Structures are given as structure tokens and as C-alpha cells.
Amino acid sequence: MSELTQSQNAGTQAFLRIFRSLIIIGVVSWLAFWVYQNATQPESENPFKLGLDLAGGSHLVYEADVSKIDPLEVPELMNVLRDVIERRVNVFGVSEPIVQVESSSFVTDEPIERLVVELPGVTDVSVAVAEIGKTPLLEFKLYDETLAAQQETLQNLNSLTESATGSDALIGNVRINGEEISQELPFKDTGLTGRYLEAASLEFAGGQGGQLSNEPLVSVRFTPVGAELFEDITRNNVNQQLGIFLDGELLSAPNINEPISGGTAIISGGFTPDEARELAQNLSFGALPVPIELQSTQTVGASLGAEVLGKGLTAGVIGLSMVILFMVLWYRIQGLVAAVALLSYVTIMMALFQIIPVTLTAAGLAGFVLSLGMAVDANVLVFERMKEEFNRGVSSREAARTGFTRAWSAIRDGNITSLLSAIILFWFGTSLVKGFALVFGIGVIVSMLTALVVTRTLLVTLPDTKKSAKNFMSFVLGNGLEK
After folding, report:
1. For position 92, which CATH number holds?
2. Who's near 384: CB < 8 A, 6+ residues apart?
3. What is the CATH number of the domain that holds 429?
4. How far apart (Å, rounded) are the C-alpha atoms in residues 449 and 379?
5. Tens of pLDDT along 75-134?
6. How far is CA 246 from the centre of its chain?
7. Pair type for strands 98-103 and 113-120
8. Could you count the other beta carbons within 10 Å of the beta carbon of residue 473?
9. Which of 4, 239, 365, 452: CA 20 to 30 A from 316?
10. Which CA distances in Å does 60 have to 65, 99, 124, 169, 292?
11. Each residue's pLDDT tens digit, 173-211
12. What is the pTM of this model?
């Protein structure tokens, strides 16, 4: 009776081992089919996200005007500018844009701050420039009577010069002694700009304060710091005009009748409802903290990206094939198990690229190809420990269990050190290095998962044999471990 019970238990365990293996193979097969469908269908919800160097796109370089800003505030404002532009380009559907700040060398006379924008898949530069240019620069300036008097004097001098020489008038400028002098509106900066803006919304006037009934207005709400600054400006300049400028153009200049608290201001400029709504949306997406000017544009063609992608995929296929061939020739049946685990690794990695999604660049693709060889690292450690146990006379199944136990510490330490390297590269590296580090880090985690789950499950499912057995299964199973 006990022998029958043992036989039934052994049969149940064998069934469970086979069942678990079939589940793993089935899940990986379904995942591979899902990845293939997403990669080939044009309207897929989870396609591969390719970077600028693989898919083509637009490369824009903007220069920020920081001449009127305290040098100590420049780094913070450039970071705000980067966040605003990134939020803006995300709105019109660009997948994974790269927006980064570049500063000039300290040896230059004047600091030059640039903003580099990479938009994968957007090959029409005019569209990209137009979308980014919709983000306005909002400024609040006070009317300066002294400056106005100086400008009036310059205008009078210009009129006298015209009368004496008969030359044509200059619009917006004056000329003294043959030298042209720029003339701006008599408003001075207050330091209150769009950097302190929190939100903007469309409203309609109620016919009070000199405004037309149902006139479209834009209500802006400042951050706590901006609210304090706005209250100080209105308290210290009662009965003065506060000009509201958008992209350097005066929209309105209301009179400050009393201190305004609460951090809310109204922008009126004869807008239509559609114009006011668009302005509110653009301001909500982020008013630029500093003015920017487009310096250069570059388009990366899709054909060049396709060539790089094709070469990367070819390298990946060759690398995968060479690793599988080596494992099969050296470890035989265990090598086939490692091959299945490696294919599972590739399938899971490609699925993660689509689900997260990860933007694949040439550097990231290189990291993926490199990780193919490292993905079987844990399998090699386990197989070597198995070989030692098998040569001691332990059965192949028990050698697999013991091999995993003995190899775990080395697998754990090796993967943790690799993962730490990837984290450091991602944290301190540039955009290209980050692409490599991200793919490499994900690969380390997934390779450890496939080694502990797929390889272990399939190894214990194989028929059990011992070194002393003289049969075909001993040759296939055991001889690979006897090397």
C-alpha cells in the first residue's frame, strides 16, 4: 500500500512539474504573439517607441535671453523653461520628447543658455516650431513716467531733425547724430512673469470696471510666491498703470486702484472667445519664464534611422544565435533549456519596451544586444554547480535543485552590482547614456527572473538520471554536465 501511495505521489509531482512547464511555455508564446501583433499592426495601442536616431524626427535648438536675469537665478529658470517646453510638446502627441539644457563654456564673454528639443517622428520642422512657439511669455510691467519723459524728449529731437533735414520719420525709433536709438514702451520690469503662473482660465466680464458686458477675459492665478509679489507691486504702486505684456506686446494697462491680494489677475485685450480660450490654454500649459529664439533646426531622415535600426536588429539576431549555439554545444539538453529561457528573456524585454514604454535609441539598442550574452550568465553559474553535484553521484534533478541553491549568492551579488552600475549611469549620464543604462538595468532584472523561474522549472521537469546509468538519457542529460 505504501509503494502504491509513493507511486501516486510521484505521478502527481511529475504531472505538476509538466503542468507548470506548459503554463510557462504557453504564457511566453502568448506574449510573443502579442508583441508581434503590436509591432506589425499600424494602429496598435502599444507600438515600439523609437528615438530620434532610429525613427527620424526634428532637432531644434533655442537660445534663451538671460541678459536681464540675475546669474544666480539662471539655472533654476532654465530648468523651469525645460519643464514648460516638455509639457508643451507632450500635449501635441510627441512620444517621449527629449528636452535638455545646454550652457556655454565659462571662457565666453557672455553666458549662452540653449534649450535642445528632440521630437521623434516629427519630420515637419515648421509644425514643431509652431507648436512650441504657441507658449507665450507673460510679463507685468509698471508705467515709468521718467522713461516716458525721456522718450518724449527723444521724439521732439527726432521731429526737429526731420524738419531740418527732410528725412523720413522712424517708427518706434529715433536717430540722434546719425545714430539710430531703439525706443520701447515706457514700462519697467517688476520681476513678475509667467514663471510665477499657476493656472489660467476663460471668464466673461460682468460689465463693471469699464469692461463691456460678457467681454471675454483671461483670469490668471499666481503661485504663493507670485501672489505675494503681485500684492507688493499693487500696494506700493497705487494709482499707477500696470502693463500686461504677452510676447512683448502690450495687451492692457489697467490702473491700480487698490492693493490686490489673493494672487489673481485679469487679462483683457479685446479678445474673441476663441482667442481668450486659446490664450488661457497656452498659459495653463506654461508661460515661458524667459524669452527664447530659435537658432537652428535639423531633420533626421527616416531612411537613416531605418538603416541604423536594421543593423542593430541584425547584430541582435546574430548575437542571440551565437549564444544559443554555444550553450547547446557545451551543455546539450541543459543548453536547450537555457535557450528557451533566453528566448523568454527576449520576449519579456520586448513586451516591456511596448508596455512601459521605453524609447529605444541606438544606445539603448546596443545595451539590449549586449545584455543578450549576459542574460545566460545565471544559467552558466547554475549549470556549473549542477555539474559538481552530478559528478558526486547525485541525480540530475536533485543536482538542479542543489545547483540553484549554491549558485544563488553569486547570481544575487552579480546582478545587484550590475544593477547599481545601471542606476549610477542613468542618474548621472546624458540622454544617450540614460538610454543604454535603462535598457541594461531592465535586462538585469528580467534575466534574473527568467533564470530563477523559467530555467529552474524546465530543469526539474526533465527526466531524472544518474551518472552511473548507461543509457541514452544519461548521455543526453548527464554527459552535458560531465564536461
Report:
1. 3.30.300
2. 403, 407
3. 1.20.1640.10
4. 11
5. 887 887 887 787 667 654 545 577 888 876 554 556 688 888 887 777 777 777 776 766
6. 29
7. antiparallel
8. 14
9. 452
10. 16, 10, 11, 38, 12
11. 444 344 444 456 788 888 888 778 887 788 887 655 555
12. 0.59
